[in-house]
Structures are given as C-alpha cells and as structure tokens.
Design a protein that fits this description.
The complex is a heterodimer. Chain A has helices spanning 14-30, 34-52, 54-78, 96-117, 119-122, 125-133, 137-168, 175-206, 224-246, 264-278, 280-299; strands at 85-89, 92-95, 251-252, 258-259. Chain A is mainly alpha-helical. In chain A, helix 2 (34-52) packs parallel to helix 4. Chain B has 7 helices and no strands. Chain B has a single domain (2-195), classed as Arp2/3 complex 21 kDa subunit ARPC3 (Orthogonal Bundle), CATH 1.10.1760.20. Classes of the chains: A mainly alpha, B mainly alpha.
Chain lengths: 300, 202
C-alpha cells in the first residue's frame, strides 16, 4: 500500500501527531449531529486520500459501506422509538427516526474506521515507540521486537516449508497426514524462534540492556511552531467539545429529529473550527505549495 | 460517547497490567519469549485471516499463560492483538481485543496455578469457552458503541448473527490446543528450566 512519505504535517512533534490522530476519531465518536458527522467523514476521506491516494481510499470506503447498512437496518428493526412511521408489520411500527439514527450511527462507525486507516500514516510506528518508550520501556521494547519478528518469522515459516515441502504439500496424503505435517512445521517454528530469542536476550544482556534509560534513534524537540500548533489544537478541541456537550452541537433523534439549541451562529463557528482542526495536514501542505515557503522557513 | 467511556476503562485495565510488568524490571530473558509468542500469535492471525474466525491466536495465548504465568499470558494476548492490528487495521475494537485476549491468557495462567488443567477436559472446555466469550465481548463492543437504546431484540440479532463465527473460533482453539498444547508445553517447559526464564516471578 502506498503512503505519502514526506509531508509538512509530519515535521510537527510526535505528541501533536498523536493528539491529531487520536483526537479526530475521538471527536467523531462523541457526536451524532449530522453536520459534524458530515464534516468528520469528509475530512477523514480527504486525509486518507492525501496519504494513500484516491483509489485505495475509495476501495476501502466502498468495502466498509455494507457495515453502515447493517447498522442502519439493525436499528430500524430493533428500535421502535420515533414519531414518523414508515411502515407497519404486525403490531410493530418501523419509524423514520430510527432509520436515520441508524444511518447516523453507521456513518459514525465508517468515519472512525476511515480515521483509523490513516493512523499509522500520520503517526509512524517509530514515533509511536518514541512517545511511549520512555515511560514504558519494557513494553515499547516488546512492541518493537514483535514488529521486527514479523518478517523474520515469515521467513522462518518459508524455510521450514521449503525444507519439509517434499511431504507436506503432497496432495496424495490424507487430510490427517497433512494436518500432522503442518502441526510439525508449527512446532519447529516455535523451537527455532525460541532458541533464537534466548540468543537475542543473551546478546542484549552482553550489550548492557537496561543499564541506562531507553533512548530513541531520532529525538524530537518542541519548537515554537509546535507550541503554537499545540495551542491551536487545544483551543479547537475544547471549542468543539463545548459545542458538542454544551449547546449547538447537540442533536436529538427521538421522538422527533431536531437540534437542541437553534443557535446557528454558534454552530457555524464551531463547524468552521472543526474543519480547521481536521484539515490541518492538508492546509499545512497547501500553505507550503502556495509560496508559503518563506513563512515556513522563518517560523522554524 | 459510551464507546469513549468504555475505551477509557479498557485502557486503564491495560495500563494496570503493563505497569505491573514494568514494575518487575523485566530482564531481556523475560521479555524476548513474550515477544516471540506474541509474534507467533499475531502472525497466526494474519496467516489465517482468509478463513474467518479460524485462528490459532487464542490457543497460542492460552499455552503461554499456562507455561509462563498469568501476567505473561495477559501481555502475550494483548500484544498479539495490537501487533496483528498493525497489519489488519487498527480500530475502536483494538482495546477490546487486547483486553479480551489478555484476559484469556491471564485466566489460563490462573487456572494452571490452581492446577485445574490436569484434566484435559477442563483445558478443552476453557478453549471452547474462550473462543465463544471472545466473540461475545466483541459483540458487546458493537452494541455499546453503535446501538442505542440497547434492546433485547438488538442483543438477540447481533448474538445470533455471530453465533457461527464464535463457535468456529472456539472449535479452532480446541483443535489447536489438542494438537499443540502437549508438544509446545513440553518445549516451553524445557526452555523455562534450561535457561531460567520467569523463575519465581509472574
């Protein structure tokens, strides 16, 4: 899968990238308001397109679309609240409100999934480990070791299959024989990997693992620009949260669909702030391309 | 909303386990075997991803819990979920899966301490049940997050929709336990004694 490698956004401090990559899906999960759902979905789609290209994004989104339908239908058939009756079956009434509520919830699910698709593109595994490595050194080591073991273990499986291939892939064998062979392969894999792991552990000990604090290959410093962006993120997050919990961003589906407080101005302002927060990777990139190079250089 | 609250609770549970692991100041010899078992568990899940619900991960986690203790079992389960999702896709289900597989490993370790697994029937029953309960917990994730209000109809629909997959997962776990528990148990036990991994601790 293609991911865009060098972006302006990733020059920010990893903590900010984490705040963005987890803040966007969290905000998406918090609200049912159709406008906020639409904004978040649009942003998630654009950001994933920015990182992985339109074809990949469209394919993923289409693939996940049936889930939205399932959620909407389950809601329609199990939830009988609401005033506007679409149709009746027996003594059950199926309402427009529960269908809309289901569609909104399905869209929320879809949006969160699309956000998580770009999570690792926004925050690379290396930066993730940088953030958590200092407070949870053993856990960070475990995780980075597992990631390294993946290709290695795959290679081991291939070697074992190659060595034992003569009898394992023989279609003349019965299913019981073949199962026995594959279980033997898995057992060889365990033994080989475990012996290797002990060697790794001894070599780590010989290189004085655990004698000093864990360090990272690259280190990141909070710059003035990072602090400005952090302030922007914090303000945007609080503003959207205020709108979601406190007023204009609330939306009721039952018994009749309506906004809780009809303050259009407040809603517009928070929607614009929400857009500004979610589209950060894109506008930072555009700022550079539109001859913003000088401002960028000076602000570094 | 509910999804966020439940995610926070789950992350606190995970943090407690990982903290207690950090507290022990684990040596490389205690860390690397967990990494290997998690990698095998996660890779098993990725390799078998084509067959829905048929995955060796639970069995690998259970065997680790039995041989290396409850804490190592929990870590292996949680990290298998986290690492395999780095390939299969992270999502709001990640903390749920981490806790579910972690608890499978944890309880396997606890049962072994109580010596309940000396009857093979208990082991297979545990495997079957862990597969089914894993599926039920994943249904709970979906219900808490996306169905509101939670009516008994919604519960019946989603639990009956997943019944086949849950039973498949349970059966797969039993099959893998049947084939692997004895030989792997022997090998891990030998390593434990030969190299002194996890001696006297979690």
């Amino acid at each position: 899968m293609y991911t865009r490698k060098h972006t302006i956004f990733e020059t920010l401090h990893p903590a900010l990238l984490l705040a963005y990559a987890s803040g966007a899906p969290i905000l998406a999960m918090l609200t049912n308001h159709p406008l906020f759902l639409a904004i978040s979905f649009l942003a998630a789609f654009c950001v994933q397109t920015f990182y992985s290209g339109i074809r990949e994004t469209a394919k993923n989104t289409l693939f996940m679309l049936p889930f939205v339908l399932v959620v909407a239908l389950i809601n329609l058939f199990t939830n009988q609240r609401g005033m506007t009756i679409l149709f009746r079956a027996g003594h059950y009434a199926y309402t427009c409100e529960s269908l809309c509520y289901g569609i909104a919830n399905g869209m929320m699910l879809l949006t969160v999934l699309v956000w998580f698709r770009s999570f690792s593109a926004i925050l690379s595994n290396e930066k993730f480990l940088y953030l958590f490595g200092r407070h949870l050194p053993a856990t960070a080591l475990l995780l980075s070791m597992i990631l390294k073991l993946f290709p290695e273990t795959r290679h081991k499986i291939q070697s074992i299959q190659f060595a034992q291939g003569g009898f394992s892939n023989n279609p003349k064998c019965g299913i019981k024989e073949r199962l026995k062979h594959s279980m033997r392969q898995i057992s060889s894999l365990l033994e080989w990997s475990m012996e290797d792991s002990i060697e790794t552990a001894d070599s780590m000990k010989a290189r004085a693992y655990g004698k000093a604090e864990r360090t990272s290959y690259r280190s990141y410093k909070m710059t003035a620009k990072d602090r400005r962006m952090a302030a922007f993120f914090a303000i945007a997050f609080l503003a959207v949260c205020y709108s979601i919990f406190g007023g204009s961003g609330r939306y009721t589906y039952f018994p009749v669909m309506r906004m809780d407080h009809g303050n259009i101005l407040e809603l517009t302002v928070s929607a614009v702030i929400y857009l500004g927060f979610l589209f950060t990777p894109l506008w930072m990139e555009l700022q550079l391309q539109k001859g913003g190079m000088r401002t960028w250089e000076s602000s570094k | 909303m509910d999804l966020c609250i439940s995610a926070i609770i789950l992350i606190v549970i995970l943090a407690l386990f990982f903290r207690s692991f950090e507290r022990q100041k684990p040596r490389p010899r205690d860390i690397v075997p967990i990494a290997v078992m998690s990698a095998i568990g996660a890779l098993g899940r990725v390799l078998f991803a084509a067959i829905p619900s048929f995955k060796p991960t639970s069995a690998v986690v259970i065997i680790t819990g039995i041989q290396f203790g409850p804490l190592a079992g929990f870590l292996t389960g949680a990290l298998s979920a986290l690492a395999s999702n780095m390939f299969l896709g992270q999502g709001p289900w990640t903390p749920w899966q981490m806790v579910a597989w972690g608890l499978i490993g944890f309880f396997a370790g606890m049962f072994q301490r109580k010596n309940w697994f000396r009857y093979r029937g208990v082991l297979y029953g545990f495997g079957m049940l862990s597969g089914i309960l894993f599926g039920w917990l994943m249904n709970a994730w979906y219900l808490v997050g996306y169905v509101n209000p939670i009516t008994w109809q919604a519960i019946v629909v989603s639990y009956s929709a997943s019944a086949v997959m849950d039973v498949t997962h349970g059966l797969a776990t039993v099959i893998f336990l049947f084939a692997l528990e004895k030989p792997w148990g022997r090998k891990l036990h030998r390593l434990k004694i030969k190299y002194g991994i996890f001696d006297g601790r979690g």
